[in-house]
Design brief:
With about 400 residues, this protein is of the alpha/beta class. It contains twelve helices and 14 strands.
Length: about 400
């Protein structure tokens, strides 16, 4: 957990220097950037501090950038008081490689906007491995040294591993992240999508709704039934809940995990999401005794793009017409990957700018001293009911 930076104290009681710092800092925040504080004599009178205690408190506040002292002029609130040093740290694999979702860059752009709107200082970093890495294990030495020196107040982490997050937390840096380890994680609620999309397709007449899933990790090959692996998975459980709500019977053969496709040999490096989806459609609709499916729920837009192309390759009609297969899928708003099928499929949009705003508000609260909210915070995709070009941003954070 995040342990905020503090001035050392004895036991649970503040020292006189801490008490004096607290009093003067609160006054500085009230007066605002650039304002002149009372004189040294007046501060002694107001705080009841000794000369030595007051000098130590002023030195501490000056070193932290709260105030500045000008000889023979006075004590002033720093022009940068309240300004924080914020870092965005992104897992390198999220933005480079054979397949990259535009979502991560859009999320980082949204975080940049949030930091700029608050007037904070921003730096952007990517995790590393090998030469130039400090004992943090994944950070370049410049970032590691800035953290060690106390020059980083908070971090937005994207895809941070446990080691990276723990290293930051041990040094009193608050971490709010997405799809990785953090004090507070903001995650897309794919379980909500699985249940809601299943119910929606049933209301549109589907009676054989399948859940198809792709993975970031190594594939397994067709060695054993995915129902064993997926029986307790939250997204699979949500899918079954959706079926039950719709009055439909759960058929394990309709819950298909790309890790078990025969096209992928055991232990090979993970194919791209697109290839997983494409091979899924070729396999399912290419069987002589293909399972009867009239609806598909997909939880990744890259995976869905492959599915749709594979369905067309197999001559499977897509949409709500008689004999066609309906598709309900995750989509990142502003990303055109599924645009060619927009009038034939149902999209549940995730808005990167909204996720960035949620992450920024959460970090604001933690840096202000509030207890971190219970993690994770779930960000629910929004059912698209009108063409994307006409959409306005809507709140999508689950209660």
């Amino acid at each position: 957990m995040f342990a905020p930076k503090t001035i050392p104290s004895v036991g649970n009681r503040r020292s006189r220097v801490q008490e004096t710092c607290f009093h003067i800092e609160r006054l500085a925040m009230t007066l605002g950037a650039g304002a002149q504080l009372p004189t040294f004599v007046e501060l002694r009178r107001d705080t009841g501090a000794s000369v030595v205690t007051l000098n130590r408190a002023l030195e501490s506040l000056e070193s932290r950038g709260v105030l500045t002292r000008r000889h023979a002029v006075g004590i002033f609130v720093s022009p940068n008081v309240g300004r924080k040093s914020i870092a965005i740290i992104c897992n390198q694999s999220f933005v480079s490689g054979p397949e990259v979702s535009p979502f991560w860059q859009m999320l980082m752009d949204g975080l940049r906007d949030q930091v700029a709107a608050r007037g904070h200082e921003l730096s952007v970093h990517f995790t590393l491995e090998g030469e130039g890495v400090e004992d943090s294990g994944v950070f370049h030495r410049d970032l590691a040294r800035a953290v060690e020196a106390g020059r980083t107040d908070g971090v937005f982490g994207i895809g941070l591993n446990r080691q990276a997050a723990a290293w930051l937390q041990d040094r009193g840096v608050a971490v709010v992240g997405s799809h990785g380890k953090a004090d507070v994680e903001v995650l897309v609620d794919f379980s909500h999508l699985a249940r809601t999309a299943t119910v929606l397709l049933s209301r549109r007449g589907c009676r054989r709704v399948a859940l198809w899933v792709g993975h970031r990790h190594r594939v397994t090959g067709g060695d054993f039934s995915p129902s064993k692996e997926w029986n307790e998975h939250p997204q699979a459980a949500a899918y079954r809940e959706g079926l039950a709500e719709a009055g439909l019977i759960y058929d394990p053969s309709l819950l298909i995990d790309s890790r078990f496709l025969p096209a992928f040999q055991k232990g090979v490096v993970r194919p791209t999401f697109w290839e997983q989806g494409y091979q899924m459609a070729l396999h399912v609709f290419g069987q002589k005794t293909a399972p009867r499916i009239d609806g598909i729920v997909s939880l990744s837009e890259l995976f869905t793009q492959g599915v749709l192309i594979g369905m067309e390759r197999r001559g499977v009609a897509i949409g709500e017409t008689s004999g066609a297969v309906q598709v309900a899928a995750h989509n990142n708003r502003g990303v055109p990957l599924l645009a060619p099928w927009a009038d034939r499929i149902t999209c549940f949009d995730v808005v990167p700018a909204d996720m960035a705003e949620t992450m920024a508000r959460t970090l604001d609260a933690v840096l202000a001293g509030a207890s971190p909210p219970e993690s994770p915070l779930w960000h629910r995709p929004i059912l698209r009911t009108v063409p994307e070009a006409t959409l306005e941003r809507e709140p999508s954070l689950s209660p």
